[in-house]
Amino acid sequence: MTDSSYLLAGRFGAATRLSPKALRLYAEQGLLTPAHVDPATGYRYYGREQVPRARLIARLRLLGLPVARVAQLVDLPSEARVVELRTWLRAQQERLADRAEIVEAIARRVDGGDPVLAAAVDVREVAASKVIYRQRHVNVDSLDGFTADAAADIRAHLRSCGLSGEGPMTVHFHELVTRDSEGLVEVAVAYDGSVEPADDLRLRLRPATREVFVPVPVGYEDFPLVLRVYDALEAWLDAGAGVTGVDSPYEIYPGTGGARFDVAYPITP
């Protein structure tokens, strides 16, 4: 083909900084198909009007986006594409901040931890209680919504049964919860009296126990800074002679001494 409006794959790749391997991949994915393939030679030709699309694809791939996501973005109007990319970038910045905090958490364990939080660690006895609870797998972004909805539904159910519904709430983290992965979380409210389970609300008796806890200071309530509170408790458990954690950690609302909530682990003496 001698038409100057077409470029052989090699020249097209050089003009758009896409390797032969990348061009083959994008052709197979339907993302950037040749304008013409010579049936006799198998040579692939691209139209000059495809150059801007190819360059955009190359830039999007530099962001580490998967081919399927790139395919969605290149077909959007320019303004919508910019909105999508800025939203993605903010999410990436949040994840990077979270990861930085996790790295610092590991470093703090090496450096001896946060002395203020370490000094706030205390132990108390907890009486047995009846609780009504809901469990669900959630990630960090959906955690607050799940907690608020579950607490509201539980308290409404207790009131519909003629009970106060104002007992303390605990949020149990049975599995690790992050922005990228879901973990099993339980929201429970203590009550006195008699109540029946409803839908996905379940009942159980929480036995008497001892717990090690920290009232969460202002400014530490949200992820990722709340990890520092968990670090302080885990460091105490690791250093405590003859004391071990016996179950998953939980948050207690309201907290002690005016704190919004406490973080606690049940322990054996």
Residue share in β-strands: 15-25%
Structural class: alpha+beta
Which spans of ≥5 residues are poorly predicted at pLDDT below 50? none
Task: Tell me which CATH architecture of the largest domain applies here.
Answer: Alpha-Beta Barrel
Key structural traits:
269 residues; alpha+beta; Multidrug-efflux Transporter Regulator, Chain: A, Domain 2; Multidrug-efflux Transporter 1 Regulator Bmrr, Chain A; nine-stranded antiparallel sheet; three-stranded antiparallel sheet; 8 helices; 12 strands; 23% strand; elongated; MerR-type_HTH_dom; DNA-binding; Reg_factor_effector_dom_sf
Describe this structure in words.
With 269 residues, the protein is an alpha+beta fold. The chain folds into two domains: 6-75, Multidrug-efflux Transporter Regulator, Chain: A, Domain 2, CATH 1.10.1660; 116-268, Regulatory factor, effector binding domain (Multidrug-efflux Transporter 1 Regulator Bmrr, Chain A, Alpha-Beta Barrel). Helices cover 42% and strands 23% of the residues. The chain has eight helices and twelve strands. It has helices at residues 9-16, 20-28, 51-62, 67-74, 78-111, 115-120, 140-160, 226-239; strands spanning 6-8, 36-37, 44-47, 122-126, 129-138, 169-173, 183-191, 202-206, 209-215, 244-245, 250-253, 262-268. The strands form two sheets. Strands 4, 5, 6, 7, 8, 9, 10, 11 and 12 form a nine-stranded antiparallel beta sheet that branches. It has a three-stranded antiparallel beta sheet with strand order 1-3-2. Strand 11 (250-253) and strand 12 form a beta hairpin. 22% of the residues are buried. The mean pLDDT is 89. InterPro entries: DNA-bd_dom_put_sf, MerR-type_HTH_dom, MerR_fam, Reg_factor_effector_dom_sf. Residues 15-76 form the HTH merR-type domain. This is MerR family transcriptional regulator. Keywords: DNA-binding. It holds the Pfam family MerR_1.
